[in-house]
Amino acid sequence: MQLKQLANISAALAAASCAVLGQQAQAGTVLDDWQFNSAILLYSETDRVSAGEGVLTARGDFGDDKYLNLGLVVDALTGASATGAVAQPYVQSFTRPSGRGSYEVAPGETPLDDTFHDTRVQLDASWEQPLAPNWRVSGGGHVSKEYDYLSLGLNGSVARDFNQKNTTLSLGLAYSHDTISPEGGIASAFAPMLLRSDFADDDSYQAAFAATRDRADDTKDTVDMLLGLTQVINRDWLMQFNYSLSVADGYMTDPFKLVSVVNSNGEVQQNLYESRPDKRTKHSLYWQNKLHLSGTFLDASYRYMWDDWELTSHTADVKWRLPLGERWYVEPQFRYYQQSAAEFYLPFLQQDEALPQFASADYRIGKMSAYTLGAKFGTKLAAGNELSFRIAMYQQTPENDGVVAPGILAEVELYEKVTAVMAQVSYSF
């Protein structure tokens, strides 16, 4: 479940199923008509999450513009994850979501569960071919498995060329069915986090813990749609517009996240498991420009997203590829992201107020800004193979959305920055 931080599988597949239709066939250099792309990514947050990911994709040319695309992703995640509970100026004790084991958090420190780990394996495949003159279709599926999460999906798309292939309209659809089975079961909405030390023996603790569990697992269904327009402006300028729609129905609460209940002095009275709506509809608009400028290549894009959780976001991304001699190039990148808070995001709950219908203290759906600054270095090798190296720094800054922190909460950090570094090696052959 934690690996969802790194990838939104259904959304990525929906986008990929449309984008692949606009790609030109690439000549295979290994195994006759096959082309392979591989990459290894390392990601590390300061004192928090560390992740490693390996990717291998293959594209086979079966003639007559028919292609088979295969992909394998393996990633592992470990480290410390923010629970959503607030920091306090004294030692705090927490029980792990499974109900087995506990840990303590030092005074003034953001509560982090530092023992979680997960591994994900994903397989996907798609087939694309012409349907009629100026028409192309694609269809495929994926399966992704983590320790406590299973995702199955199908996707398909159709594209139509106009204006001597200078204009392409595409429509993509994807469906995914996800099952989450967290260790220890799924907690009831706003169930209290229990401490073993508050009970006389293990039997009474286990009975009380079981009473906070609602069910062993749950599911979520997601339908994604992407409508795209790609336009060749001139020989040096390619432009793309996309509209995306995503409709999700089912379990969207994070079973590992807590929200603290505090008194008028900001002291934690208890920690509750969060609760989120079971429906979400997202929209996004995407605009991309690729330009050839005097031997250099500029790639600039902007995305605006809004949903019925009242969360909106803006993403601007710029990459500029510059030649370094005959074979090497460097590609600096800058990406800026800004989002508003979901309507039910609350950094904490007040003891003297009634419980809301939904509440989450997960900073990932709170107000924030973030930026990525990086560079990619690449070179062309023999037979057209390509080797590249990428390094980047990411910083995320959660922001206060106008909430007044009472008493001792004003003395601790409620909106802690997250800084990460990323390194990637890619090889195409």
Automatic annotation (TrEMBL):
Superkingdom of origin: Bacteria
InterPro entries for the chain: DUF3570
Keyword field: Signal
Q: Which residues form the signal peptide?
A: 1-27
- Mind telling me what this protein is named? DUF3570 domain-containing protein
Q: Which organism is it from?
A: Rheinheimera sp. BAL341
Mind giving the lineage of the organism this protein is from? Bacteria, Pseudomonadati, Pseudomonadota, Gammaproteobacteria, Chromatiales
